[in-house]
Design a protein that fits this description.
With 290 residues, the chain is an alpha+beta fold. The chain has 2 domains: 205 residues, Multidrug efflux transporter AcrB transmembrane fold (Up-down Bundle), CATH 1.20.1640; 74 residues, Alpha-Beta Plaits, CATH 3.30.70. The chain is 70% helix and 12% strand. It contains 11 helices and 6 strands. The strands form 2 sheets. The chain has a 4-stranded antiparallel beta sheet with strand order 3-4-2-5. The chain has a two-stranded parallel ribbon with strand order 1-6. A hairpin with a 2-residue loop joins strand 3 and strand 4.
Length: 290
């Protein structure tokens, strides 16, 4: 793309439009986070894990078990399968509720054997929450240090703000729709952070190269040019990533549904952030520091 095409793109000049779009994405979610919070799974709020073995002429899958659990108001339970063994993760059950659950399973399947039960206390849940937040904080600090070392502090701050933007969007959407947050959600968020930082670093690397080669051009024009030079790569990467995620979301079953949703939202928003937010933020920071 020639100089005219780069100038027409005007990402930096139109940055306020992109900031408004970001605020539209973030503000409702932040309000929801403060008003209704997150729908934490049993990993965080505590609950029960029931282990049963189910044998039937017809192959039994987790969806069949979840359908039966709806009869005892446990339709939100997570069900995982390993051979003929099923692990049912649900809100904390007393002995009477556990007996009712087992009776319902035995009424619907040929052979059901109780293998064990354990409880995840709220104390363990709060510890997991603390560790999850700590892991995100450490990841952010380490990336800030690394990018500052490789580039300079302005690049590091812009990259961390871009990551924060993505995390807030994902958390906000999960809060708005009250989708359940399980331990796998943290893995999804860390993956999103890794994807965002990788994409942002590629653009920043191109910016640095263009600054070295074309010192006479304005910083604004160099930023626009750098984004355009990496645009095809960014779009192709996100498209090839989200296609398998959509397939897994559609056919992967309920167990990984919210994990895939988090990844899908995070990768799409991550591509938007890399193109339209990270470079304008770098421009703002450099201008303020000048």
């Amino acid at each position: 793309m020639g100089l005219q095409g780069v100038q027409k793109m005007q990402i930096i000049e139109k940055r306020k439009i992109f900031y408004i779009i970001s605020l539209i994405l973030i503000i409702p979610g932040v309000i929801s986070l403060f008003s209704q919070g997150l729908n934490l799974g049993i990993d965080y709020r505590g609950g029960s894990i029931i282990n049963v073995r189910i044998e039937d002429k017809a192959q039994v899958n987790p969806a069949d078990v979840r359908e039966v659990l709806a009869d005892v108001n446990l339709e939100k339970a997570e069900v995982q399968k390993s051979g003929n063994d099923f692990y049912i993760r649900t809100s904390e059950l007393n002995q009477e509720q556990t007996n009712e659950l087992m009776a319902t399973l035995k009424d619907n399947f040929e052979k059901v054997e109780f293998l064990g039960a354990e409880s995840v206390g709220a104390t363990i849940g709060s510890e997991l929450t603390r560790n999850a937040l700590l892991s995100l904080l450490i990841a952010g600090i380490l990336m800030l240090i690394y990018i500052t070392y490789r580039f300079e502090w302005a690049y590091g701050v812009a990259a961390v703000l871009a990551i924060l933007h993505n995390v807030l969007v994902v958390l906000g959407i999960f809060s708005l729709f009250q989708w359940e947050i399980s331990s796998s959600f943290i893995a999804a968020v860390l993956t999103i952070i890794g994807y965002t930082i990788n994409d942002t670093i590629i653009i920043f690397d191109r910016i640095r190269e263009n600054i070295r080669m074309k010192r006479k051009e304005s910083f604004e024009l160099l930023l626009n040019k750098s984004v355009m030079q990496t645009l095809n790569r960014t779009i192709n990467t996100v498209l090839t990533t989200i296609l398998p995620l959509i397939a897994l979301l559609m056919f992967g079953g309920a167990t990984i549904k919210f994990f895939m949703l988090a990844m899908l939202i995070g990768f799409v928003v991550g591509a938007y952030t890399s193109i339209f937010i990270s470079s304008p933020l770098l421009y703002e920071i450099k201008n303020k520091a000048a």
